[in-house]
Amino acid sequence: MNYDAFADTLSRVVPGVSIRRHVPLAELTTFQIGGPANIVVEPVSQAEVVGVVRTCIAAGVSYRIIGLGSDLLVSDNGIDDVLIRLAENFSKITHMNNPTIRQDALKSQRSRIAIQEKIPQHVIYVEAGASNATVADAACTWGLSGFEFACGIPGTIGGAAIMNAGAYDGDFSNVALKVRCIDSLGHVVEVDNSQAGWSYRHSMMDMRGHVVLGAYLALQEEDSEVIAYKMQDFQARRSEKQPLEMPSAGSTFKRPEGYFAGKLIQDAGLRGYSVGGAQVSEKHTGFVVNANNASAQDVCELIAQVQQRVYEHSGVRLEPEVRMWGFN
Ligand SMILES: Cc1cc2nc3c(=O)[nH]c(=O)nc-3n(C[C@H](O)[C@H](O)[C@H](O)COP(=O)(O)OP(=O)(O)OC[C@H]3O[C@@H](n4cnc5c(N)ncnc54)[C@H](O)[C@@H]3O)c2cc1C
Question: Of 148, 173, 201, 203, which one is the catalytic site residue?
Answer without folding.
Answer: 201
